[in-house]
Amino acid sequence: MKSETITSEQFFSSTENNTAAVTPNNSIFNFQQKSTTKNSIIKASPLGLAILIGTFIAMILGALSMYLLQPDFDQFHTNRINSGWGFYFLILTVGLFFFQAAVFLYNVYLYLRYKPIESVSDDLLPTVTVIVPAYNESKQVWDTLMSLAESDFPAHKMELLAVDDGSKDDTWYWMQEAKNKLGDRLTIFKQPENKGKRHALYRGFKLGTGEVFVTVDSDSIVKKDTLRNLVSPFVVDKNCGAVAGNVQVLNNSKAIIPKMLNVSFVMSFEFMRSVESRLGSVLCTPGAAAAYSKTAVFGCLEDWINQTFMGEPSDIGEDRAMTNMILKQGHHVLFQRNAVVLTNVPEEYRGLYKMFIRWGRSNVRENIMMAQYVFKNFREGSKFGARLLFLNQSFRLIMTYPFMLFMFFLIINYPLLFLSSTLLGILILSSFPVLFYGKRYNWSESFWAYSYSIFYTFGLFWIAPYAIATANKRGWLTRGLS
């Protein structure tokens, strides 16, 4: 996400000059507090309103078609049961349905029991090294560094490092401007050439002196209390090896795709990672904001920087890989809902699918790595949660191609049945994210969950099978997009 940036002028209340940006009455947090709250209502554009209306019309027509085509559905199910392959496929799908339903109910139970760890007092907070890797971020890196500088964290306990990974734009200039502003509070480095985010982080890890490393993407903004909330679990849980921050969308008022992703992110982080945190096994600490125990990092640092897949160096999925290696050491990996970070996401289809391909490939790679240790005695205490999460992800990967082939079979032979059942399914299944987001934040924005499901089902369904087939390929993909 190196080009989908939002400039500081879009959220600083006054930017007459760069030095005014961090004064108390001119804080970026005035913007943050308005970005994703229960009281915020982002006005829908005419296009957005048309998409929402079209979404509801499509789902209603799907439900109506299901009713009108009921005899055809009955005949289809009868034919499928009477065929050899259809009967076994039906048994498989029913079995997977009940498995997923049981997992979902268990997830709801775990979510209801989840509570973020409260911030500890200043004297108990560990020393931290905050690492900000940047590549072609221009002024956005200034905004990120200023938000970190405004954190409610003891200055004498925070070391701030920024690493320019061989940028070709004016990123280094804005790092220097931030250095001029913050003085000794910030140390900046410039890689002689672009070697990738993993190498930029590696340099920060090697140079950092804190007890805890915090990594923050240079297209992200942290809230004032994010850092202290992010690192407090290390004080409370002595076996905590890593903590995931709560990622929300920064540019969700700029385009349709960020609006949809904003609802999706809340579901992914505030629900799913809360569940994983209760099991002590968050599977991915996001690059936007994550914290790592120094001991845990150095327990796998050389393996991490030299990681390969099918003989090629791994230059993607550095966050998922680090998380996986820390889990393998037997540490807990937790999620802090109260450690909020806002990050820019792609605003156009091309940037979005490239980002998802990168994530998909990383998911395949790390699932293979996890299979090598998850059924061993990799940590003390219960391992059920980690194993359940692994099995759930594995089933989804394994069934990707069978379900894709079945989908094409339906499209070719029963197009109306496929379309109507899919739209009705979206109406039913997407109602949970709608209710979840609406309850926590804003009802008017929650309906984007329906639109996102339709968009993903018909526009991004190919991502998973393509990512599996090309899991060995390298490349960040989204760098250089305009």
Word description of this protein:
It is a single chain. The chain is α/β, with parallel strands linked by helices and 482 residues long. The longest helix has 30 residues, at 84-113. The strands form two sheets. It has an eight-stranded mixed sheet, with helices on both faces. It is globular, with a radius of gyration of 23 Å. The protein contains 21 helices and ten strands. The chain has a single domain, classed as Spore Coat Polysaccharide Biosynthesis Protein SpsA, Chain A (Alpha-Beta Complex). Helix 14 (349-371) crosses helix 21.
Descriptive keywords:
alpha/beta; single chain; 10 strands; disordered N terminus; 54% helix; Spore Coat Polysaccharide Biosynthesis Protein SpsA, Chain A; 8-stranded mixed sheet; 482 residues
- Overall geometric form: globular
N-to-C span: 10 Å
Content of β-strand: 5-15%
Briefly note the CATH topology name.
Answer: Spore Coat Polysaccharide Biosynthesis Protein SpsA, Chain A
User: Total number of β-strand segments?
Assistant: 10
**How many structural domains?**
1
User: How helical, in percent, are the residues?
Assistant: 40-55%
The biggest sheet, with number of strands, parallel, antiparallel or mixed sense and barrel status, is: 8 strands, mixed
Rg for CA atoms = 23 Å
Mean pLDDT, as a whole number? 89
**Poorly predicted tracts of residues:** 1-42
- Going by CATH, the homologous superfamily would be Spore Coat Polysaccharide Biosynthesis Protein SpsA, Chain A
- Individual helix count: 21
- Name of the level-1 CATH class: Alpha Beta
Query: Which structural category do the helix and sheet elements fall into?
Result: alpha/beta
Examine the secondary-structure arrangement and name the CATH architecture: Alpha-Beta Complex
